[in-house]
Amino acid sequence: MAARPFVLGIAGGSGSGKTTITASVAERIGGDLDVLQHDAYYRHREDLTYEERTKVNYDHPDSLETSLLVEHLDGLLAGETIEVPQYDFSVHLRREETRTVEPAPIIVVEGILVLSEPELRERMDLMVFVDTDADVRLSRRLQRDVTERGRTVESVLRQWEKTVRPMYVAFVDPSKRHADLIIQEGYSEEAVSALESVLLQRILTQRSTEVPA
Question: pLDDT (tens digit, 9 = 90+) per residue, 147-198?
């Protein structure tokens, strides 16, 4: 029987560098790791017009279908294959196609609000918060949203002031009190190496304790 997968939660504000850290850890660990991004679970609000969807507060916990993420996480923990939603940020809707994710020894759950959700925290074995200065986060968000998501500079700045910054203060920043490890100012080679060591040790331990079915 295989051991229960190790669940790593990585949170932090938009543009903090958490996705870069997740990608770096995933590259080092390889096929022994799954990544579930909270962003993929934005609600599919096809009941709203495009204009109405642009006015949704996407930085509030209610904009995310966290219950589905919890269901999928439980599925992976039980050894099941899941179908993860694919979200199209240009139209604020889920795509028809999904992403197939099979069980792996390590599961990374990443997103700005993952440490603010009790149901996610209680399933995590290690919780990390990436704590980066607001000016750096805004600069990174501007570059990402303009180049990758087709937004205008004005719309990004407006969203930052209206929802991103207030929701960071209300939900994201307070969640770092739950973190086992806080990484300052985004990417840190030392922190990533430490995470890699912990995860590799977990994989080696799991393989040594697995019992053939």
Answer: 887 788 998 899 899 999 999 999 999 999 999 988 887 666 777 787 788 8
Full-model pTM: 0.87
* Whole-number Å distance between alpha carbons of 205 and 65: 33
4 within 8 A of 107, measured Cβ to Cβ: no
Domain ranges of the chain: 6-205
Using CB atoms within 10 Å of the CB of residue 153, give its burial: 0 to 12 exposed, 13 to 18 middle, 19+ buried. exposed
Q: Cα separation of 213 and 211, whole Å? A: 6
Q: Say how many C-beta atoms besides its own lie within 10 A of residue 182's C-beta.
A: 14
What are the backbone dihedrals phi and psi of residue 89, each rounded to the nearest 5 degrees, phi first?
-70, -20
Per-residue pLDDT of 57-79, as tens digits, reads 999 999 999 999 999 999 999 99
Selection from 138, 124, 137 nearest residue 184 by Cα = 137
Buried b (16+ CB within 10 A) or exposed e, 130-148: bbbeeeebbebbbebbeee
CATH number of 6-205: 3.40.50.300
